[in-house]
Amino acid sequence: MNQALTLEVMAGLSRRPRKLSSRFFYDALGSDLFVQITKTPEYYLTAAEREIFESRSGELVRALALPEGPFELIELGAGDGHKTVLLLDALKEHTLVYVPVDIAEEALAQLQVRIHSRFPSLEVRPLRAEYFAALRELCPDTRKVVLFLGSNLGNLVDVEARRFLMQLSELLHAGDSVLLGLDLIKPASVVLPAYNDAAGITRAFNLNLLARINRELGGDFDLERWEHRPSYDEREGVARSALVSVIQQSVRVDALEQSFDFDAGEPIHTEISRKYSAEILREILKGSGLELERIFLDSRAYFGDFLLRKTL
Questions:
Q1: pTM of the prediction?
Q2: Which domains does the chain have, with CATH numbers?
């Protein structure tokens, strides 16, 4: 039994408002569905960040001010690594160890094969671990460049993002760098379709969280009785996703030996996606020892890769 999922479901469905962490979207099926989402025409984030890496990798590498000696390129939540390949190509004259970090063992294995086929002489040291546990395992004396791409920081509310960056900074040394991919604040007409594509893949991705509870914990969620419902507050700059009960119903989870009653229209909050500006990020970075040096934008200014430097 998945102990972490069990604890999350017990805590998240026992409270009001109901809440389940987006980290549990990513079982094997969920990971595959997310890759499909990134290829939909509505989901601009991946294409926008890929454009930055395709058109500005050389400029980005120069801005990193890398040492002449070896360094570690650490990617948190590495995923399929398609964008990272473009950066690695621009780094081929440098001596480095690529350290992809992820909790999905299969994804890491596939990534290692892909990187080795493209860069056979590159040392790849995958780490299956939570982010900070992985960083503690790495050589303390080696210069580090940390990649945290794909707007993953946006899944955290501001107080959590501040805590995350504080913890990250504590594990780095002066001169180390962080390349942070962030989605930028923009109109709802652009943002909302990215979380509700016409093909229904995002809907399936969200509902798979309930299907996962059914598979792994003996739940009896009837997916036809749940609706995927995204929202976006343009002024606040936060997109939210929820699974909403279509009718009044009771759901049993055998692993918990418990049933949960839902009112018609009651949501289970599953995800936020914070949209950023330079001003918002600078406010969050205060006191962290990380300073914003430069921003690399795509041609439509939809997405930014923010270069941070550890100064203290």
A1: 0.90
A2: 3-42+189-274 (no CATH), 44-185+276-310 (3.40.50.150)
